[in-house]
Amino acid sequence: PCPTKLDWRIIFRNPSQPLVVDIGSGNGLFSLRMAQIYEHLNFLGLEINSKLVVHSLACAQELRLMNVHFVSTNATTSFHSIISSYPGALYLVSIQCPNPDFVDPEHRWRMVQRSLVEAIIELICKEGK
């Protein structure tokens, strides 16, 4: 289970920087690379697979990145409760693979649901993407 309130001061060197959230961050490579390039932004990967989160966190630590973090959670249901406590602006939300199980229609589950979209709209800054 994911804590809905994170201590942003411990997670990020500068928690007032604009935040980029990658929903369904998978192996974390996108967020890790972006964190290296865009040091003026913070990156948060939300991933339901805890093994991938452990791997991503280890990579961030190995690279000594203080502007990227990963959380194991179901972003569809926890996005608002996690992101609403962030002290900086929510600048960008990325969803690169919204339907990860596309092979078997009976087991298909969709990340992009109305409640998630409404939470993003409510929390994203005016200049956000």
UniProtKB/TrEMBL annotation:
Reactions catalysed, as given in the entry: guanosine(46) in tRNA + S-adenosyl-L-methionine = N(7)-methylguanosine(46) in tRNA + S-adenosyl-L-homocysteine
Protein name: tRNA (guanine(46)-N(7))-methyltransferase
Cross-referenced Gene3D superfamilies: Vaccinia Virus protein VP39
Keyword Nuclease on entry: no
PANTHER family for this protein: 3-DEOXY-D-MANNO-OCTULOSONIC-ACID TRANSFERASE/TRNA GUANINE-N 7 - -METHYLTRANSFERASE, TRNA (GUANINE-N(7)-)-METHYLTRANSFERASE
Any one GO CC term of the record: tRNA methyltransferase complex
Species the sequence originates in: Taxus chinensis (Chinese yew)
Molecular function GO labels: tRNA (guanine(46)-N7)-methyltransferase activity
